[in-house]
Structure prediction request, 96 residues.
Amino acid sequence: MATPEKIDLFEAIEQMKAISLAGGSFSMKFRKYNRQMKSGGDLVTINAAKIRPKASDEKIENASYKLFFTDTETGRALNCWQPLIVEFNGRRTVLN
Prediction:
């Protein structure tokens, strides 16, 4: 079985921004985590997403560490912790 291609997480985020700016969408997978409840770990798959403007840290705690996006299939505005993104367009993300 072939090893999935890897991509640096921050390079993946830059590509997500470029794809969104060009009017396209991308797929991604991430792990859920709720800091207040200290729970999560469930894998979430988003088939078609677009980046949306980031909130400020003053409005949303730790916004600088989160990715703000819209699930274009449902229209829901969502966010996730950047380090918990595990896949972008079928490529496994890694933190270097």
Notes: The beta strands are 6-8, 26-34, 39-51, 66-71, 76-81, 85-88, 91-94. The first strand starts at residue 6 and ends at 8. The helical segments are 9-21. The longest helix spans residues 9-21.
